[in-house]
Amino acid sequence: MPSALRAESRTADTRRITFYVALAVFAQESTWNFYDNRVPELLRDHVASAAVIGLIMGMDNLLGIFIQPYMGNRSDNTRTSWGRRIPYLAVMMPMGAALFLLIPHMSSLGWLIVVILLYALVMNSFKPISESLMPDFIEPAGRSRANAVVKIASALTTIVAALVSLLLVDDYPKLAFAVPSAIMLVAVAVLVWRVRDSRSRAYQAALAEDRASAATESPDVKVKVTIRTILRDLVFDRDRSRLLVIIAVFVFGGAWFAFRSLMTPYGVQVLGLSDGEAGGLTLPSGIAYILAAFPAALLAERFGRLRTMAAGIAVFATGAIIGAVVQTPTVTIVALCLAAVGAAGFMINAVVVLWNLAPSSRVLGTYTGLYTVGWAGGGFVGPAVVGLAVDVTGWHLLLLHIALLAAVAIALVVWVYRLRRASGTRESAE
């Protein structure tokens, strides 16, 4: 009976922290999605060049590549009575909400860019910190389910951004920015009130590792794991599993972002659709992704995360190939839905594999940041590489190029799987 009660308590704790992390991610992604919807229009009031607008809008991804690993590492090395994550969130989430609220009130281009960059800096700073709460509290075996819930919450923010735009933007364009800001303030209030990550399993393990490290070091040496140390271990470790996972994230991220960002011109150029019709091609696939997220976690628990990731990419590539072979609007929509279902198999489990491969509880935040480096880097490079291939071969081969990129990601994941098998590691635990 006591063991049953303990199991029930652990399940309740897992659900509780999953809800809080999902709330934090929902809040921050609500502002990001509305930012992506509205800020280009604000910039158009000052800038005529689409290239310049695109450059400014892309700065947040570039900042994230550099800032997120640093802030993840900084929080990893923080020790307070509140833990190592909540102190940062308590300060930075209200700052992000305030900066977001200021954006529509900037009347000059210079000040608008300053506020946009400050907003991107603050938001990128706490993104890996909020997401790292989940592996801090939840044991490795349950992380895929929890991450599926978080990904669903993130995906639902597109609906929030659309509703705010529909209901408020035309009549109250400045007030509309207050809604996502208010969501973020409510989220941080709940987190600060209800979560103390000083009690998390990973934080307690990190403290134990600190004590063990301090016992073997001279008294004047500060116990700290630097990014340089982590990267050196990652690159020069004889087991390449962690590095290969990050490269796979980079490659599949490139395929995914090319898939999402280039479908509108594909619909116009190849399928003969209007701009509006082409822009709606990916809507059903977004719904398919949400529906597939939790089953992808269950499949990972049953068959192993790496196998689920490889199979998911294979389904993604199959959908792309079907769309490349039969180029009609109906078949394209079906193919995109199939591809999105497959993508869920990879996207739900990839960061979990990286967390579970981390050598220590002291580096979980840094590994969250490194995952973002791979994903955002792929999002930056992938559409450009696929776009270059399209320039050479034509739009009709777009989906085939994406499928080829996905095939490279499959090879990388299979490579990791074989390395784990060769080392005698139980794959389902990863």
UniProtKB/TrEMBL annotation:
Look up the signal peptide feature and give its range.
Answer: none
| Cellular compartments per GO CC | plasma membrane
Q: Where is the Major facilitator superfamily (MFS) profile domain?
A: 241-430
Q: Name one Pfam family in it.
A: MFS_1
Gene Ontology terms for molecular function: transmembrane transporter activity
How does this chain sit within the bilayer? Multi-pass membrane protein
Query: Which compartments does it reside in?
Result: Cell membrane
Q: Which SUPFAM superfamilies match?
A: MFS general substrate transporter
PANTHER family in the record = MAJOR FACILITATOR SUPERFAMILY (MFS) PROFILE DOMAIN-CONTAINING PROTEIN, PTHR23528
How is this protein named in the record? MFS transporter
The organism encoding this protein is: Nonomuraea glycinis
Q: The organism's lineage? A: Bacteria, Bacillati, Actinomycetota, Actinomycetes, Streptosporangiales
